[in-house]
Each structure stands twice: as structure tokens, then as C-alpha cells.
Amino acid sequence: MTTERKEELIRRITEKENFPLARNEANQIFHSESLDDCLDYAFEFYQSDNTQVQILGVFLFGLIAEKRPNALQFLRNTVRQKGDWRVQEILAMAFDSFCKANGYEQSLPIIKEWLGDNRPNVRRAVTEGLRIWTGRPYFKEHPEIAVSLLSELRQDESEYVRKSVGNALRDISKKYPAMIAEELKKWDTSIKHVNQVYKLASKFIIDLGDGKDERKQGI
């Protein structure tokens, strides 16, 4: 990438807040530059004082993480520290980019590892990044795995993570109401944190009292 092109890229990126533009530019760089150069650019952009340029770097890390493990580690250990909520949203997208390139089934060990991380931003990168979970390959064919993984975080210490979990389960309930209803019946809703997730996850579910569960209508 020439200096002139880089300057023009940064100018366009910083004109206004535009996540799709940053993603498109990252994809163009990824498809036109070597992996080593992409990694160098990702580090360079992330070190910028401008959030939009940082976001461009995070998108790039996500695209190359499947081939460059140090990029995935940088996302997990460094990007998760950034306090800006916008960067954390892109971290979630970047993790999904990794899973897409690596294959969702093949990524299960890493998905579980990140879900078990003691840092909330790492856990949320998974719960939020893979939404809608059952729209992703593998989980589309195995929705019960998605429900099980998410449900393990129903008592998460972070409200930030719990909301993401509840909303992710609610998403799944639109297509699999009976599956979500059966899972929710197992929960102890007398526990405050669990109850919060329950309320979010059950938004579209009603129990008819006869063993059947249907979507709420008109919501």
C-alpha cells in the first residue's frame, strides 16, 4: 500500500463514524495485500488515536486471525481492554470473522475457551459476535449446542454479558420456541442474575400448561 493510498484511506475512514465502510476497507486490504502486510497494517491502525482507524485495525485482525494465531491472541488479550463500546462491538464481529474462516464446528474449542475466559469483554465477544447463533453454519444444524453454550452463562457475574446471553437466546426462540422453553424450565429463577436472563430469553415464549410452548403473538 502506497503512502498516498494509506493517507486517503485514513481520510475517508475518519470523515464520519461508519462501521460498514471500515469493514469494506478492511476486506479490500485483506484481499489485496499479503497476510504479513495485513498484520502490520492492523497493528499500525490499532495504535491510532482515532477510534475509526482503530476499528479498521480490529476488522483486519479478525480477517487474518485464522491464519495468524497472534492476531487472535491480540484480539483476546489487548483489544478486549479498550474501553470504547464501539471497539468492543467490532471485537465481537472480528471473532465471528475468525469462526467463519476457521469453520464454526472446528472453532468450538476456541469458542468454549473464550466463553470460559474470566474477562467479560472476551465472553461477550462470543455471545454477541455469533448472533444470531442458529443462523451460523453448524449451529444452524445443531441449535441445541448453541442453547447449551449460551445457557451456561445464565448466572454470569457481568450484566453486560447476561444481557447479551438473554438476547441471544431470545433470538433463537423465534425459530425454536419449544427448545428454549424446555431449557428455561430447568433454571432457578429465584437467583437474581438467572432471572434477568430468563426475562430476556422468554420474551417471545408462553407456556400453555399442556406441555406445549408457542411464540407470543403481536410482539
Structure characterization notes:
The protein is about 65% helix and about 5% strand. It has 12 helices and 2 strands. The protein has helices at about 5-15, 20-30, 35-45, 50-65, 70-75, 85-100, 110-115, 120-130, 145-150, 160-175, 175-185, 190-200; strands at about 205, 215. Strand 1 and strand 2 (about 215) form a beta hairpin. The termini are far apart. The model is unreliable at about 210-215 (pLDDT under 50).
Short description:
The protein is 63% helix and 3% strand. With 219 residues, it is mostly helical. The protein has two domains: 94 residues, Methyltransferase, Methionine Synthase (B12-binding Domains), Chain A, domain 1 (Orthogonal Bundle), CATH 1.10.1240.70; 117 residues, Serine Threonine Protein Phosphatase 5, Tetratricopeptide repeat (Alpha Horseshoe), CATH 1.25.40.
Query: Largest beta sheet, briefly?
Result: 2 strands, antiparallel
CATH topology of the largest domain: Serine Threonine Protein Phosphatase 5, Tetratricopeptide repeat
Q: How much helix, percentage-wise, in residues?
A: 55-70%
CATH C-level label of the largest domain: Mainly Alpha
Q: What overall form do the CA principal axes indicate?
A: elongated
Number of strands: 2
